[in-house]
């Protein structure tokens, strides 16, 4: 088994293909090395830096991050918004633009996304669009952001209650993780992150799935060695998929495992359920359909349910009907040429994209989730 228990770095690379990019992903135990990591990035010479954080993360870590950056640039700003998915909208992006305009940020300046996926998506989208694109870095502080959202350059906001309806692909220049921040992460947010961890294992890393199954106590207790192993494994999978297909023309779609039904549940719940919890619910539906299609055996389906439940993920949702979940799935952006894009499993660790899932199959899968 690969030893991923040491902190280290990997590099996301895609060069000379027209949309080339390359950036390091670093695992550290404090914010102290952030300035050095930034100074090592060639051609990154901002005069102004704005750290974007939500209210909770700002209270916990903003000062430490500003201290870590002290002395690097003449102008160091911060922008703080109310924590929660409700802030992931164009109004907050507009508020970020206002600060950037007021402080005369130019094309060479930099945004720092300090926080979870909401902050990364928002700050990344502001960076993608302000002056037609400025640099940004990701400093992820939730498990979900460390295993998924900080890598790969999907940025954006919700629009009229539709998830991520407006956005852009814009790769960060650096992903810097301070692993110690996981100590303050509330349990429900940890569980939400585990939704994306299990997703990653199911789509491309059977060995990681076994690790999650066999090291339950260590992972659940957030033991540092187990966390580094899990987070590195997820970043390796994500980096590999994104390098292959940065703008989701094809294979990147597998990162959406559990999201077709998951995003629909998230929308129908009025965002009262967390993203990773909804992905967990959606994965049960997608795994059930994989079983029915003869992709995975009954035993694998049971094991997926068992592992999801062990890590605290829900396997069903109350108060919703299968019909409304299907309706919401079909009005999400998963449709291509009138067909829904659904991700299924050949086996644990091997996902594929299927564009032939019928309405009745979708309805049956949604019915499995409604109790
Ligand atoms: N761009 C992508 O590739 C991608 C991938 C997955 C998810 N997402 C998006 O990410 C979002 C979910 O991200 P999230 O789960 O990180 O949510 P989040 O950013 O809202 O963070 C969750 C909560 O945890 C708090 N928090 C963050 N770090 C903390 C810490 N170290 N200690 C204590 N509290 C902390 C935040 O203040 C917030 O209240 C969704 O909008 C989802 O659509 C994007
Ligand atoms: O990076 C990707 O690609 C993903 O699909 C990762 C997902 O976990 C994430 O939730 C993403 O934001 C979903 O993308 P969307 O295009 O379906 O909104
Ligand atoms: Zn997701």
From TrEMBL:
SUPFAM superfamilies: Dehydroquinate synthase-like
Pfam family, one: DHQS_C
Reactions performed catalytically: 7-phospho-2-dehydro-3-deoxy-D-arabino-heptonate = 3-dehydroquinate + phosphate
Domain 3-dehydroquinate synthase N-terminal span(s) in chain numbering: 79-191
GO biological process: amino acid biosynthetic process; aromatic amino acid family biosynthetic process; chorismate biosynthetic process
Amino acids binding NAD(+): 117-121, 141-142, 154, 163
GO cellular component: cytoplasm
Cofactor(s) listed: Zn(2+); NAD(+); Co(2+)
EC id: 4.2.3.4
Entry keyword Nucleotide-binding: yes
Top-tier EC class: lyase
Entry function: Catalyzes the conversion of 3-deoxy-D-arabino-heptulosonate 7-phosphate (DAHP) to dehydroquinate (DHQ).
Family: Belongs to the sugar phosphate cyclases superfamily. Dehydroquinate synthase family.
Protein name listed in UniProt: 3-dehydroquinate synthase
């Amino acid at each position: 088994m690969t030893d991923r228990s040491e902190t280290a770095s990997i590099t996301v690379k895609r060069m000379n293909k027209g949309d080339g990019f390359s950036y390091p992903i670093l695992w550290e135990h404090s914010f102290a090395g952030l300035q050095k990591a930034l100074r090592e990035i060639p051609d990154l010479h901002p005069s102004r830096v704005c750290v974007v954080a939500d209210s909770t993360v700002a209270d916990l870590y903003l000062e430490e991050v500003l201290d870590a950056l002290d002395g690097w640039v003449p102008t160091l700003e911060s922008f703080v918004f109310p924590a929660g998915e409700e802030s992931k909208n164009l109004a907050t992006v507009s508020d970020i633009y206002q600060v950037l305009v007021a402080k005369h940020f130019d094309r060479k300046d930099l945004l720092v996304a300090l926080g979870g996926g909401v902050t990364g998506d928002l700050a990344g989208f502001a960076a993608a669009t302000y002056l037609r694109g400025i640099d940004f870095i990701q400093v992820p502080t939730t498990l979900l952001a460390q295993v998924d959202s900080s890598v790969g350059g999907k940025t954006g906001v919700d629009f009229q209650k539709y998830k991520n309806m407006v956005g852009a692909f814009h790769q960060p220049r650096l992903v810097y993780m301070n692993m110690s921040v996981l100590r303050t992460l509330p349990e429900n947010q940890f569980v939400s992150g585990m939704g994306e961890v299990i997703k990653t294992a199911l789509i491309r890393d059977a060995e990681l799935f076994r690790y999650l199954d066999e090291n339950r106590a260590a992972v659940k207790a957030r033991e540092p060695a187990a966390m580094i192993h899990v987070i590195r494994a997820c970043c390796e999978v994500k980096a590999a998929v994104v390098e292959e297909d940065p703008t989701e023309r094809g294979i990147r779609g597998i990162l959406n495992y559990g999201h077709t039904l998951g995003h629909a549940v998230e929308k129908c719940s009025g965002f009262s359920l967390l993203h990773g919890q909804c992905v967990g619910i959606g994965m049960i539906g997608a795994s059930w359909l994989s079983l029915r299609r003869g992709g995975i055996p009954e035993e694998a389906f049971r094991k997926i349910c068992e592992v999801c439940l062990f890590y605290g993920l829900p396997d069903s949702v109350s108060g919703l009907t299968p019909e409304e979940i299907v309706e919401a799935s079909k009005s999400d952006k998963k449709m291509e040429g009138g067909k829904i894009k659904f991700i299924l499993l050949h086996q644990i660790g091997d996902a594929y994209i299927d564009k032939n899932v019928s309405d009745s199959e979708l309805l049956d899968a949604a019915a499995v989730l409604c109790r």
